[in-house]
């Protein structure tokens, strides 16, 4: 028996090796050769409308990606709407947020009587939120409150980004199946393309687009107004609220194929012990979409957003007296900062004291809400084998924010025998830009201002104002010391 077992081992190893070789076999390449489709299908959760999803290799970056395929049987109908399809995917390629699954590239394949849209997305190997919650519940563990807050914040950050786009991007398919978790705890929202694509093309091409709402077990993620002409970003807030509830209780019991009942949702709500968490989730699940808070406002809800009183006091002092301080006060202070100096200490009986050391503490990482227009794809999104060989220069993003403050400093460099210009620009959203440049004898203020517009550092309306400002600075300094 032992001899027989020993004789089988090499064969088993050989079979495993052959299976591994089959999976690494390259089935197809993108027109430019960068993306290689492997013989290994992957499941990125429930991604509606995708007939095939394969593991692929990005040969330039050396990372695994996902090769997604949408099939259309009616080639003639597809060609009639080809430009719409291209426009949709060109928009998706420029959507860029750390908590959104990135769409890298797309291209169209038309052969015989059918058409394909193939697009490459980021690969998230750790699985979906639903899978994670099931594993946690199976191990008889409760959801960690800090992890719940961290995940809610990341999901809301992605939704706030999408909703602030002009026009707003509505996800429309947010469920625990389309939210993914990486090994490092980073949340990624997938299937952002689904609603945009489904709404942009006519009904005769929508056959492969299957909505998550058609799955009975996912019906509870969608509000009553879903699918109506007037629905908006509040749809995503309701879906997020249901995800937050599911994360808090680990699972909302379903009735098999019938899906999740109202009674099960009600029981889950009542099981929440934290009143702030309950109020937070219930505000998202209000039946009236106009009464639901925005994603941006939810980021500042007391259950998620906490600022220590000492940090808050320091911030108020800084803001109230900033007119007394030079613009570069933060940079100057950090140079002479003793990070080991204890600024405050709270003694605790029987426990080590709590200490606050010297330093600069960010209060938050959320800017004030400001609509942002998605730029056109920086590199041509549509793959073309011939164009890939002769890349064109990449256009620069257009700056739309107003310059509210300018400072200039000119210093003579003995070593280089030329003037060194440092320009500080403060934009209307408090963003600071510091630009440095070694002036040439032929440089003119208007040319420099026009160049800053061209490279997207200032908006066109500020060009004349900056040119005049630089001209006055040039007049205060001689062309070159004698």
Question: What topology does this entry show?
Answer:
Layout: H1 2-24, E1 26-29, E2 35-41, E3 52-58, E4 63-72, H2 75-80, H3 82-93, E5 103-111, E6 114-122, H4 129-138, H5 145-163, E7 179-181, E8 187-189, H6 193-200, H7 234-249, H8 262-270, H9 275-284, H10 295-298, H11 309-320, H12 329-335, E9 342-348, E10 351-357, E11 403-413, E12 418-427, E13 432-438, H13 445-454, H14 463-476
Helix pairs in contact: 3-6, 5-7, 7-9, 13-14
Average the pLDDT over all residues and give the rounded result. 79
Residues in helices, as a percent range: 25-40%
What fraction of residues sit in β-strands? 15-25%
Shape, principal axes of CA atoms? globular
Task: Please provide a written account of the structure.
33% of the residues lie in helices and 20% in strands. With 482 residues, the chain is α+β, with helices and mostly antiparallel strands. A six-stranded antiparallel beta sheet has the order 1-2-3-4-6-5. Helix 5 (145-163) packs antiparallel against helix 7 (234-249). The chain starts with a helix and ends in a 6-residue tail after the last helix. Mean pLDDT is 79; it is low at 1-9 and 377-395.
Short description:
The chain is of the alpha+beta class and 482 residues long. It is 33% helix and 20% strand.
